[in-house]
Fold these 4 entries.
Entry 1:
Amino acid sequence: MSKQALLVMDVQRVIVDRYPDPAYLPRLRKAIDTARADGVPVIYVTVGFRPGAPEVSARNKMFGRLAGVQLPAAAAQANEIHPDVAPEPGDILVTKRRVSAFAGSDLDMVLRANGIDHLVLTGIATSGVVLSTLRQASDLDFTLTVLSDGCLDNDPEVHRILTEKVFPMQADVTTVAEWAAAH
């Protein structure tokens, strides 16, 4: 029998603030509450680096500007998971070092140790962490579901193309409400 986990990816305050959609966090909260009520593990994935970002190469186009930079203490608070969807005791926290939730993290080990073989993906951005995680998880033979309105992207057309045309090749795509109703 398949065992699911809900992945809540990159919903750190600093990221959420760049995607102004007032309905997003309440929808995501519904998915999280549904998962918890059904005993589905909730795994929060955040992007983070050590002080000075020694794991970042200056050659990395996305993260290279952080190489060797000492971020101010206020940056740590801005990088916390948004309080509207904050983790609760028992939730699993994973820190990744690149775009995919698997890159530089222990996510695969956590999933396999807990017998999880079906991932339900949510997060910001659809064209970033969701796409990268979906591709890698598919290659690792996980069963996948994407909650289309549990994902955000700064380009609505890119979001639409990914959720309607690209993701269905490797995942079931549904909405938070449809997924919640099925649980």
Entry 2:
Amino acid sequence: MSRPALRRGLRAVAWAALALAVAALLALALAVQRAPRWPGPAEVSAADIARARDFLRRNDPRRQTPGPLRTLVASEREANLVLHQLARRLVPGASAQLVLEAGSAHLQASLPLPHSPIAAWLNIAATLRETPGLPALEDVTVGRLPVPAWVAARLLPRLAERLNATPEGSLALDMVQRVRLKPARLDVVYEWGDDGLQRLLGTVLPPAEQARLTAYAQALTGAIQAHAAAGGGAGLSLARLLPPLFTLASQRSVGGGDAVAENRAALLTLALQSTGRRLSDLVPALRAAPYPRRVTVTLAGRDDFPQHLLISAVLALEGGGPLANAIGVYKETADLRDGSGFSFNDIAADRAGTRLGLLAQRDPRALQARLARGVAESDFMPDVADLPEFLSEREFLATYGGVDAPPYRRMQAEIERRLDALPLLRSP
């Protein structure tokens, strides 16, 4: 090849490389945006929790008619509550929603880009078309960048491969036979075999998580035995149980361990103990796991505060603060109807737990180190002895006007002020 021809060839390659680089940068600029287009619901309401409870009862496979094929029916709102929480669990800060129509659904999702020095989001819009099996994906747009049809056609199989690599995804792909898309309604036809419940429980708590929880049950058993050997009574302060379990969490997080998973296991173990439940209630395969002797876990001399705090902490760590907050408000408003009344000190314990759970996720190792050193109850639970409790529905509405009224919000603000005074739980 002559030298001029070689130069022309190299120039053509250089221009082609430059064109590809410019095209890639243009595609990136079109795909990535500075803000989420679909931020999702600002908060989960107490009414949403009531709706979720009724949804779970309505679709409990153990209570449905016998037969391998079952149909789960969800309204658009119910489907979006589940989808949004799932998106947040898979990608912290993400949101997703569906708009359901006859034979199709419009999926909208906003995903933050991790490790980006600036705010950067992938805003995804897609259409799902009903088929005899799982829906087909089409008309995909990422930001302002349309995705070619042939690329969209290959996305679902790739997504299915990745889902199949996880216990939850594998179970879903095995069980779900068809999805029917209707106006404001979703029907999921699934196969419920004889081993369905066992597989579901095993998915919620896979073997690695079962082993982790067993280790914390052993640590809790040791702490309670030490309490008994020292002549302790039937009650044991939560402040005495947090250090040994979070010492274990800190030890297990060394060397690249999953500190958030360790914190979750520690809090869940304590929550089960506070409610008198055992691990085998969650997973029958753990019948042989240690079961600490029954001892009442207390906080401010009460056995209900640890339950409020710990359950809210687990929910906040797993599903985000809004979910835990809504469940706390839902329980108190339900108590108005059931007769035990509305208690603001219970709300304070819920909020303390929510902050603890969010801290366990946001700064997991720092929390482990702090709790392992030892804590007093006043480090994570404010004084609430003066807060109103056991209010009847008439008293609550007459004094506070409901959960959205200004007097109620002033009480909420007072609770947050007291929590901010606690160094461990102070808002960042």
Entry 3:
Amino acid sequence: MQKKYIVRLTDEERQQLREVIKKLDGSRQKVRRAQILLKADIAGSHWTDERIAEAFGCRTKTVENIRQRLVERGFEETLNGARRSTPPIEKLLDGEQEAHILALRLGAPPNGYAHWSLRLLSRKVVELGLVERISHETIRRTLKKTG
């Protein structure tokens, strides 16, 4: 089957990829992407997707996705990964609110309950007016963090 996305690297790009691999410069994903691009280069090693996937312990779909990203989005974004379009969510609770939740969790559960569930805690926190609304998942992360 003929490949839809062909990897053609310039000499400068090949050299940059070799430097990333040699110095282990960047994240593990960046190094793996550099290795895959070098092996997929038509003017270089020109390995098959299956051989690349086997050599680097990934799926062939991963290799195909990297080829496609190189052709559609360019070398820099493929190597370094895409930047987030929106920044991470700000912290939902401050330290005082977290302390209240932890103290509530360590206290006795309401009558009729054997222990605090995450959903019960989230309802109680809203009922007490600590926050306007909160999910049980935020409660879980807060309790796990203070662990």
Entry 4:
Amino acid sequence: MKYFLLTLGCQMNLSDSERVASVLDAAGCTKVDNEEDANIIGILACSVRQKAIDKVYNKISKWNKWKNNKNLITFISGCILPADKEKFLKLFDIVFAMPELPQFPKMLGEYGVTNPLSLIAEPNNTIDEIQLFWNVKPKYDSNFEAFIPIQNGCNKFCTYCAVPYTRGREVSRPSQEILDEVRSLAEKGYKSITLLGQNVNSYGLDKKGDELTFPELLEKVGQIGEEVNKEFWVYFTSPHPRDMTDDIFHIIAKYDCLGKQIHFPIQSGDEKVLIKMNRNHSLEKYRKTMQSFRSILPQATVFTDIIVGFTDETEEQFENTRKAMEEFKYNMAYIAMYSPRPGAASYRWEDNIPLEEKKRRFAVLSDELQKHTYEYNKSLVGKTIKVLIREKDRKPGYLSGHTAGKIVIRLESDDLSLIGQIVELKVTGAARFSIEGELVEKTVNC
């Protein structure tokens, strides 16, 4: 049997898809790159964004028509709201929650797919389910970049967010498993490793006294970096401002292997909107944390998330967000136009900012962002920096990668052996969202 996987949404879904692929491979199936060639087609869905759900409906409508001419099994998992799940049960052959992945081979067996896997022991509760899921060894999509889930779920209940309803409450993965996976990947030569969670800096708080805290986990990761004689960078996403502490910044500064970049969502620069979003932190708290970050890690970059057009957001409140962008000078911002999601608290409220106004605000923030990204990128021109080469660039004859601070950089080269290597480049040019460089030395550390 041949299978095709479509992954939508965040990096957590990408990580989950690697475990789905591992289970299907172990069941004797073969992955293909084109959905037309597959007998089993699955989606890792994302109920957090309406656009992603719309894509699911478009795909399954097409795939179900194919069943008139070929044998085809369809399945869906990922981040799915209960309301969406009810609809998907009528459209897909198999619908399962991600913690149920170890039972997936049995589900396929009911459709006549024979496989050599025996059923993994039945879980006793939700935490057992998640642990069994984490025990599935992922089939990494890359041989130099990897994602490591460190927790599942979210306890924050931001009013706009569906994640607590799609993934449940926070459960921390055992730290020894995480550290073993980091060490294994580093020793195999992986160059970029990202620790994943909905609120990574609340890691361990659900097992207080019995598990490491997030700063302690980072410290252990840093020590692995000193022990393994290979160069690699470790990142994490996403932290929450409420739980962010200065000791995290000091630990990042202490160890070379901890990437000098953080993703630090602000969502809004207005106090009243932050309260309405139930973010449970003030703008002043965010500001003080950013000041500490800049003081302790002056060379590091910072990315953020922002929502425009949240329910009742006034022009003055939006202007406060623009001022916050001007103040904090982000290196990247992922700006989203608000769309209500069933299950989230804000779904009950009127979505009363017109789409055209949301688009205008999106454009204003995009313009503000570009001012600061361009200034920062220009400051790198003439410097020699380390870069992870990731892939062929869209521009013929070029490769692309990112710096330790995750700034995108292009290199004029057709040497594909550089892909997956950390090299030194001299920065020769700058654009708004990227820089360009020339090779100084082929590899720093293989």
